[in-house]
Amino acid sequence: MGFSGFSASLCVVGLILVLSGGGCEGKANDNLRFITWSDFTARRARPLLTVKCRNNTTKVIVVDKNGGGDSDTIQGAVDMVPVQNKQRVKIQIRPGIYREKVYVPASKPYISFIGSQIRSDDVVITWHDKASDLDSNGFRLGTVRTASVTVESDYFCAAGITIENSVVARPGVPGMQAVALNINGDKAMFYNVRLLGAQDTLMDLSGTHYFNQCYIQGSIDFIFGGARSIYQVKGLILIILIIEITVIASIQMLGISV
To answer: What does the record give as the active site (predicted)?
Structure first.
């Protein structure tokens, strides 16, 4: 289903989302407590070359790994966002495989990662850390620090991308936890996003979030954390307080392949 085929309104467990049709580079939201449909789209086809926009319009930063954008890395685009920014910043990611770890700090809310409107596997963010790996000081990373993408900011949203941890792990082997996405801000939304991994793929750590038409792949504890999130798949809505094994058992009992 393409972006144009989705429209909804939702207000539940403190997660406030408003999705509707509309323009994408108009005036910034008057009320930033809402995520609107336009926060998931970006019509610009050329790089902005500056983060500053006129008339208080939404900012767009283009990422192109081949050098045709404002940044050739996603982390570079995140770094361009002002600290404590007060308006939506759309990071439009052109097709390609981006081999990097990405960190969105709590000090940078209202960021959108926007990939392909047709195929979420056209834009891939991938890395390969696992819990038993050592950092530069010789300490084990542990599960939390393995994430390919970590989002600590509020009102983050992503659409049309794949986030992967490429570690190949046999289920249950110690030290092989390898997180693809660690989300621990609040009020984030993911639409048509693929999360790929083996063990501990999605760390839905805290906050209230909404996952719509997402594909989540893994083996053991592939969705875990303490968040209160909504997972909507093919019209069925699951409102889940995530408690590792409990959530996986509940999903399997419902016959849903996540």
So the answer is: 221
